[in-house]
Amino acid sequence: MRFVFVTAAVCLFVGAVISWNAATVAVLRIIGIDLSFSLPFHFRRRKAPEVLNALRGRTINTYVLVSGLLLFACPLFVGLLAYDYVVRRYVQHSTYDLKYVLASALLLVLLVILGVWASIGQWQKGTESGIGVAMLAILVLKVSTDLTGALTAVELLVPAAVCCSFVYFGVRRIRGTLSGKRYPTRRDMGVQRNFVSEKFVPSESPTAEKVATVQKLMASAVNVDLPSNEQRNDE
Length: 235
Known about the structure:
The relative contact order is 0.12. Helix 1 (2-30) runs antiparallel to helix 3 and helix 1 packs antiparallel against helix 5. 72% of the residues lie in helices and 0% in strands. The chain has 2 domains: 2-147 and 182-188; 204-234. By secondary structure, the protein is mainly α. The protein is built from 7 helices and no strands.
């Protein structure tokens, strides 16, 4: 019976995430942000940055709010609440106490931080990924913990996570080197810059920017000196 209830909790988790994102898309469409209703079902990387295109001309603050919070942190948190409700009631037979409330608040803060970090990276690269990887990681951790116990889950998941990360980043680096693919930067997008950490983002070509700045200054100096030279010749 434990497996049946955990399976039901997983289904409820996925349903809650999709429902939240669908409701969010509906509200955003009402206020003028034209997102597709198929967006909540795109769990993998999107071919086109749909949210960035819908927010073209708006600030990075708006993008972080929509992509990082409303479409990432909030649906995952709602899904976890739905999952925990089924497990705590039908598997653990436990009640909600102060410890659970504090743990949930901490989890929400962590999801918000992760959502902001992910959305800033997507804005800089001009690409967007769904929340499928985050959902899979959460479900693997929760299901393994509820079925086998916390200690056994840690002993199994930590080596597996390290191995998968090594393989993933290795394959990604090799593919990037062979294909020579270059992602578009935030300069190619229509989202305006208005973010508190913008000045800390390193430039991709600082030398070229410095040369361009020097050339502009020299051109300005020439334009300023020309009238004075003409006046001297007239005198």
